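Q: Is it fine to ask for two folds in a single conversation?
A: Yes, each is treated on its own. Send the first.
Q: Here.
A: Result:
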Amino acid sequence: MKIILTHEVSGLGTAGDVVDVKDGYARNYLVPRGFAIRWTKGGEKDVAQIRRARKIHEIATIEQANEIKAKLEGVNVRLAVRSGDAGRLFGSVTPADVASAIKAAGGPEVDKRRVELGAPIKTLGSHQVSVRLHAEVAANLGVEVVAA
């Protein structure tokens, strides 16, 4: 099935790309979550609009991405969350939580869709988080999760 991506999907493409995927993947995952729309002949206008919007929000050059990476790696991110006695969290830390903690710590504003957690963060302590800034540039930063 041909679809038009509305958001970046790892391993598949970026917003505005027209890709061919298995029917079930598109019907059960991508379309219901809003990551894609079905391709139609009239959808070609949507592709141009999505690409224009992506260019506005995208980091244009590798130099810009490296500047933001340097700022991100210089920020100490502390995230206060509720936890139990054994150090386990009530729930888990989400990419949106990390993005807002980066902003609160004085770092640059980061889109939550660019934050990649290696595994769900469900315990107190230090954890490594990757922020994908550009196709070739990713910033690795430490996030310290503390009890609130």
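Q: Second one now.
A: Result:
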Amino acid sequence: MSVQMVLLPVFVLIGLTFFLLLWMVTARTKAVKARETSLRDIALGQPKYPPRVAQIGNCFSNQFEVPLLFYLLIALALPLRRADLFIVLMSWVFVVTRFAHAGIFVTSNNIQQRSLAWFAGALVLLAMWIYFALKLLLLI
């Protein structure tokens, strides 16, 4: 697999993260300007944002939990030359589950649907890690 093919899903997921970052900053700035919260109320990271702003911020923060294991896998698989078609296809499936999770998170925030999207992504990532480990340890 080419480096570009392996990294494209990574770049797409990073794009989602930056989109959420910009949305969060905009929402937080608007909340302060509209006096829905004050700088003193949030200066030490207290969760004093309005619910919608907190929802966007929590979705952004979530991009640094399970996806971190995805980034690590790709960072290891590339230089070890273990990033093959399976890894690339599963990367795209993982990215789709992350978009679904984020989409549910910032819209309906239906916990059942969001949990299913999260769990699907976690299972895909687990399969990727098992495949990578077996490939590496068994020299397949």
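Q: Anything structural to flag on that second result?
A: Two points. The two ends are 16 Å apart (CA to CA). The chain has a mean pLDDT of 94.
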